[in-house]
């Protein structure tokens, strides 16, 4: 008795299926790449809602971690930069171009 390891399953016939199936698979791929862009441009660390467009400026450097509204709120409260703890000199609205 031998354990047959070469089990030829006709997968190819099932996978090749119809053209419609191929199209849906491609669509899923596209959605996945969009999701990765979303994680790259993750929202404000404070409200987790609005996009990161409030640049927290300290000296010659700045940290872009919060939305404009939350960044301004931090400045108003005299809180330091949430990333490096430097004093916030100003908050500027950042536009992606
Ligand atoms: Zn925010
Ligand atoms: Zn900082």
TrEMBL record:
GO molecular function: p53 binding; ubiquitin protein ligase activity; zinc ion binding
InterPro entries: Znf_RING/FYVE/PHD
Keywords: Metal-binding, Zinc, Zinc-finger
GO biological process: negative regulation of apoptotic process; protein ubiquitination; regulation of gene expression
Any Pfam family: zf-C3HC4_3
Region forming the signal peptide: none
Source domain of life: Eukaryota
Protein's recorded name: RING-type domain-containing protein
Organism: Cyanistes caeruleus (Eurasian blue tit)
């Amino acid at each position: 008795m031998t354990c047959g390891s070469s089990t030829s399953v006709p997968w190819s016939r099932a996978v090749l299926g119809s053209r419609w199936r191929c199209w849906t698979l491609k669509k899923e791929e596209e959605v996945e790449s969009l999701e990765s862009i979303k994680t790259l441009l993750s929202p404000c660390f404070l409200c987790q809602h609005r996009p990161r467009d409030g640049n927290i400026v300290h000296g010659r450097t700045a940290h872009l971690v919060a939305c404009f509204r939350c960044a301004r709120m931090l400045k108003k409260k005299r809180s330091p930069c949430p990333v490096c703890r430097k004093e916030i000199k100003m908050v500027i609205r950042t536009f992606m171009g």
